[in-house]
């Protein structure tokens, strides 16, 4: 039986999602609990890997089990054994050839910053930018990301995938009580893409870049023109759309 | 010149305030920055030590310097060199024989819990109690702590201080949007005293203890009758009253 888990985690004290020999990882912690329950190594497969320090409010991953436990009971069993920085919020059965990475239809990421004086309780949870940002300029630049583009300029040179075309459905700047959030929904994201777009928009907000140059920079397909990457603090995998209907409902709510 | 620092820190990734050979401590981090500026070992003295995992919104500590830097500039210099989980919010000169531990006149601690489903973003910042709590019973019990008492029953057996009489000015239960906070103001607190009182009040809230037995338990001066200690998650040194006037103003605001 294939079980899909909905997962939330606080990335601060993890070396990212993916299992490593050294260092605490989200995959490592969850597989360790599943392996101790199954008494045999149990592998999990995520919707997407997240980097060191990146958070998730709605990640998904699945595993296969031969144990005779109702699918929906797994959430309670697993959650009680997880450390305090991982929550398994729901579990359900999926078909045996389901693969969330390929079957899901898009994601929303949120990048949160605060602009007040240094707050140690935001450590790892929001990035700190104490400069004034021109939100209207950021919103103007954001419009140019919408639609289908080759995002070579806005992805890490380490990206191993050749096909760099992605569709951005929505890119919002939301004001918060002490800063702002960038909220971006797309068909998929290349390595570091959200953090590079965020760093770029913060440059626009500081008037170091002109919003109207955005499309030209995308079309240049040249990462060297956009060298900055925002830190992982404040980056959240906010939502994973399991199917087209979920995505359409999200976009229609606007 | 003696400089007093106002300090806030997120205790999650610290082994407490006090310097240790191994492990990251708040004292260790601040002394390391001061020592690198002075190029000679520089010791700091706090208003109170906090345990592993305990936070501070308003801790104070002082150091002596021969550097010709205006007292109020130290905050900016130090803050920029501190890690993200420590903020130095203000600095000012005090008299050369000032000692914040002896000259301060009381403290407020806050203990925060949340009662919704597991939230990884509260990891280390609020304790999780998913049981229903009878707040009126807790408030009834809280009244008995007010005034001057010997708090032997409500302090760790490891307490080295013989004189265990303290004055509690205020003990409030504040409802929050997802739980509650216990806010306690006193002349001083014994080792683990706030965490033991919190654990006791949570027992009262779960109707495992009767509010009217509280005074009898205080008067028993017997820790074995109150064996629980609440975890450090959610404990904040909220306020340090530097002098009697600050304390009186706080109490009069009510």
Automatic annotation (TrEMBL), chains A, B:
The text of the family note is:
Belongs to the tRNA pseudouridine synthase TruA family.
Q: In the Enzyme Commission scheme, what number(s) does this protein have?
A: 5.4.99.12
Q: Which CDD domains match?
A: PseudoU_synth_EcTruA (cd02570)
Per UniProt, substrate binds at 109
Question: What is the name of this protein?
Answer: tRNA pseudouridine synthase A
What positions does the domain Pseudouridine synthase I TruA alpha/beta occupy?
Answer: 8-103, 141-239
Tell me what organism the protein belongs to: Phocicoccus pinnipedialis
Q: How does the record describe its quaternary structure? A: Homodimer.
Among SUPFAM superfamilies, the record links this protein to:
Pseudouridine synthase (SSF55120)
Q: What class of enzyme is it?
A: isomerase
């Amino acid at each position: 039986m294939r079980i899909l888990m909905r997962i939330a985690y606080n990335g601060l004290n993890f070396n990212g999602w993916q299992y490593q020999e050294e260092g605490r990882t989200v995959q490592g912690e969850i597989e360790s609990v599943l392996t101790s329950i199954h008494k045999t190594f149990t592998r999990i497969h995520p919707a997407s890997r997240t980097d060191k320090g990146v958070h998730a409010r709605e990640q998904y991953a699945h595993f296969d089990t031969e144990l005779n436990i109702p699918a929906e009971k797994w959430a309670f069993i697993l959650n009680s054994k997880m450390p305090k920085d991982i929550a398994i919020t729901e579990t359900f059965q999926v078909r045996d050839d389901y693969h969330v990475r390929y079957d899901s239809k898009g994601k929303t990421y949120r990048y949160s910053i605060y602009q007040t004086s240094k707050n140690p309780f935001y450590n790892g949870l929001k990035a700190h930018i104490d400069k004034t940002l021109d939100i209207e300029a950021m919103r103007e630049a954001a419009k140019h990301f919408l639609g289908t583009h080759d995002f070579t300029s806005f992805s890490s040179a380490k990206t191993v995938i050749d096909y760099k075309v992605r569709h951005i459905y929505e890119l919002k700047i939301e004001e918060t009580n002490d800063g702002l959030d960038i909220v971006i929904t797309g068909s998929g994201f290349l390595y570091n893409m959200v953090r590079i777009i965020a760093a770029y928009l913060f440059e626009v907000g500081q008037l170091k870049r002109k919003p109207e140059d955005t499309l030209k920079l995308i079309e240049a397909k040249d990462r060297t023109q956009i060298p900055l990457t925002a830190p992982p603090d404040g980056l959240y995998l906010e939502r994973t759309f399991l199917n087209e209907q979920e995505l359409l409902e999200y976009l229609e709510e606007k």
